[in-house]
Structure formats: C-alpha cells, structure tokens
Design brief:
It contains 4 helices and 6 strands; from the N terminus they run H-H-H-E-E-H-E-E-E-E. It has about 180 residues and is α+β, with helices and mostly antiparallel strands.
C-alpha cells in the first residue's frame, strides 16, 4: 500500500531527511540509467519509458518555481503511476497527441550528483539524484531549447533500477510553454 503525501514538505522534498547515499549504488550505473531514460523519451519509445517507473511513482513538473505546493498551485504535470500509464495509452492511440508530426528531441544531461538517500513509503531507501538538462526540440516552424534541473529518486525492483520520482524544474517555468512534447 502506498501513502499519499500530506504535508507541504512531503510534496516539495519527499518528507523526511535526506541521508547518505545508500550502499550498493554506483555513479556509473545511475548515469547509464538516466541516459537511457532520456533516450527512450527522445525516441518516443513510450512502452520502454513507461516500464522504467515503479508502481508508486510520481512525475512532477511544477509551474512557477521549484518549491511550490502542488495542492495549492497549478502544476504543468503532476502524475501518479496511474496517470502516467493513462497518458502513455492516450499518446499511443494516435488520436490524442500534442503535435503532428511529433518534434525531434535530444536531451543532454550533465552535473549528475548523487544527493543521498530518502526513505520511501515501503520503508526502504531510494537514492536521490540531481541533474541539469538541456533539451533541444526541433519543430516544423521553429526550434526550442529547454533547460532545467531534474531530481530523480531511483529504487531497485527485482534487481532492476526503476524510477520512483521525477521532478523537472524548468529554468523558465514562470513563462508560457508553447509545447509539452519534450515532457512526454
């Protein structure tokens, strides 16, 4: 059973204190996982991208800053695992899409940092990782460059790394966003 966050702190930072990086995680394997997640998103491999998430996952793109409370402020995306699945099903139908034809995308990740460990609702410790990103989006009429900071929480499930949490804070989250294609 998963629990829902109930305090502002739990929404913003996951609740609890950030502790040391848990044993058994290497920088190289974490970086490779993040690169793979970005590639699957860039290549519109929706099944592969969706398979990376845990059952209790949360995907959040705040609007208007990093530390806003999604219960009282509009979010660009605030999806639990069920909503992630629904979004992917809708995209794959060909009837609900953000663009036709879809943008060509490439993400570049950098400044990957292992930030520490954070207890999850299962009582285990997820590794928390931060990374900066640039996403280059090529559309029919123009190109767009997106930048920001992503916080990930990764967990091992049956020996495989899975994504339990992803928070994308855009540098220009306070401005109108003409397309959300790069966010899936």
């Amino acid at each position: 059973m998963t629990t829902s966050p109930t305090t502002r702190s739990e929404y913003v930072d996951g609740g609890g204190q950030l502790g040391p990086v848990p044993d058994g995680w290497s920088y190289g394997e974490i970086a490779q996982f993040l690169y793979r997640e970005a590639r699957l998103a860039d290549e519109n491999d929706y099944d592969g991208w969706e398979a990376l998430w845990t059952d209790d996952a949360l995907y959040w793109v705040p609007s208007g800053g990093a530390d806003v409370d999604p219960r009282t402020n509009v979010a660009i995306i605030y999806d639990n695992r069920s909503r992630i699945s629904t979004r992917m099903k809708q995209v794959k139908t060909g009837k609900r899409y953000a663009q036709a034809p879809p943008s060509d995308l490439r993400r570049i990740l950098g400044n990957i940092e292992l930030l520490g460990g954070r207890e999850n609702a299962l009582g285990t410790i997820d590794v928390e990782v931060g990374a900066n990103f640039l996403a280059y989006e090529s559309r029919q009429r123009e190109n767009q460059l997106w930048g920001g900071r992503t916080t990930y929480r990764l967990r091992r499930v049956d020996g495989e790394i899975r994504l339990a949490y992803k928070k994308v804070v855009l540098v220009d989250s306070d401005k109108p966003i003409p397309t959300l294609a790069f966010l899936i």
